[in-house]
Design goal:
Blueprint: H1 33-59, H2 71-86, H3 90-95, E1 97-98, E2 107-108, H4 112-142
Antiparallel strand pairs: 1-2
Helix pairs in contact: 1-2, 2-4
Length: 145
């Protein structure tokens, strides 16, 4: 299964919309269209929170170092966007479950090797999200008022 297009199942008129993200692949794909949409919304919320916090801190004249706080919602935004893009939920991967049906209807991953690959991917997503959040926080600190 190819996962190069951003949430292909969510794009109207996409000929792959019926098949993309409909099959569990250990360490590659563990969520379907409904879960991808949920992660995308989480990314949007995190982005708005990041921008709002940065704007608020600069408007009140908070010390530059306080702007490092934007790393938290930025990491959340990065996590949501990465999970949507990869069609892989880090939380599901760490718990050994997947979902391609309606929200909340997870299924257990039975194979131990598959669970190990899922945990590895979940760790990668977590570390990447943390790195992006810290980078955004550092940029927020060095930007002029």
């Amino acid at each position: 299964m190819m996962h190069s297009a951003f949430a292909p199942a969510l794009l109207p008129g996409n000929p792959q919309a019926d098949t993309a993200g409909t099959e569990y692949e250990p360490g590659i794909c563990n969520i379907g269209p409904a879960e991808v949409a949920r992660r995308l919304r989480a990314g949007h919320v995190g982005l708005v929170a990041t921008l709002g916090l940065y704007t608020g801190l600069t408007m009140i004249g908070a010390p530059r170092l306080a702007r490092l706080l934007v790393a938290l919602p930025a990491a959340g935004a990065a996590s949501g966007y990465l999970q949507a893009r990869l069609q892989f939920c880090a939380g599901f991967g760490s718990r050994g479950v997947f979902n391609f049906g309606p929200l909340g209807q997870t299924k257990l991953v039975a194979d131990a090797d598959a669970r190990a690959r899922d945990r590895s991917r979940a760790t990668q997503i977590g570390l990447a999200s943390l790195g992006i959040g810290v980078a955004v926080g550092v940029v927020a600190v060095v930007l002029p008022r």
